[in-house]
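Please describe the entry underneath.
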Amino acid sequence: MGKFCVCLTSAKNDRDKATVGFVVANAAVGSDQETMVFLSTEGVRLAERGYADDIREEGFAPLAELMAKFTAAGGKLFVCSPCWKKRGLDEAKLIPGATIVGGAKLVEFLAGGSPCVTF
């Protein structure tokens, strides 16, 4: 099994990028890749319960559905701790399957040569 990383910096500020990032992540995890989505900057908002519920881009499944499918398939969803804290978000509202981590987690995952795409 290989590894694949999606870095996602967008949320409602660019719904298309946020959606496509999870489409690609689902394709990777569905292709038997150990897949990580790293949410940073505005992307961390997607990990707040209820935030993604109204994000629907034409031609794609709703974003909340794509995110749930990703974690149910074994995808790892990591949330940048400093980015989360900077926005004053509440850890009690973190969606199931998401984990707040430092940047070292991303470096550790990528250090083995994992490809990474950013949206």
